Amino acid sequence: MFGDDNFLDNGYLWGRIVAMNRIYLLLGTNIGNLEENLLQATCAIEANGIRILKKSKIYKTKPWGVEDQPDFLNLALEVESELSAVELVRILKLIESRMGRKKTEKRWHPRLIDIDILFWGDDVIEHAELKIPHREFFNRPFAMRILSEIAPDFKPPGAKKALKEYLVGECDERVEVYRD
Question: Is 123 a catalytic residue?
Fold first, then answer.
């Protein structure tokens, strides 16, 4: 056990440091039992070895993109993982699928669960399966508001200011706290 290359001790693998990536996720749902959907997704994330460091309150938000649909419940998570971004997005898509999300060509329509990777620390990632930072993040004030609760001083890659500074003067009419 102690000579085994796989022995992990306080974040150190004998002979090298295991890099943990800090990642920001946004979860959303507007079909079915919304609170249960968020709870189930959060539990599935943890069950896949992704450590949740911070969790925002649950927010009720107005639909974005296609407005003729039910309101959403959203929450943000700060997580850490040893997974690569591609491995993580595949796990998140598998969680969505196992929860019953149906793949559709329509964007911004009702969904049982949606789990987006917003940021991967300070990294910019361009891959066929994902783009980080999330390409719509700065177009969605509700996402900025929710993430700023758990990461107000986070400065997105390429940004000149922290999240909380982007929200100065922003109207909250599309976002309300649903539950602490």
Answer: no
First to last CA, the chain: 43
Domain residue limits, the chain: 18-179
Q: Which pTM value belongs to this model?
A: 0.85
Determine whether 111 is an active site residue: yes
pLDDT digits (tens, 9 = 90+) for 126-154: 888 889 888 888 888 889 999 999 999 99
Check if 51 is active-site: no
Residues 119, 130 contacting (CB under 8 angstroms): no
Single out the residue of 142, 153, 141, 163 nearest to residue 59, CA to CA: 142
Greater confidence, 173 or 5? 173
The active-site residue, picked from 4, 68, 90, 111, is: 111
Regarding the domain delimited by 18-179, which CATH topology (the fold level of the hierarchy) does it fall under? Alpha-Beta Plaits (3.30.70)
The amino acid at residue 14 is W
Helix or strand holding residue 80 (H, E): strand 72-81
Residue 34 CA: distances (Å) to CA of 16, 30, 64, 89, 134: 42, 6, 17, 22, 23
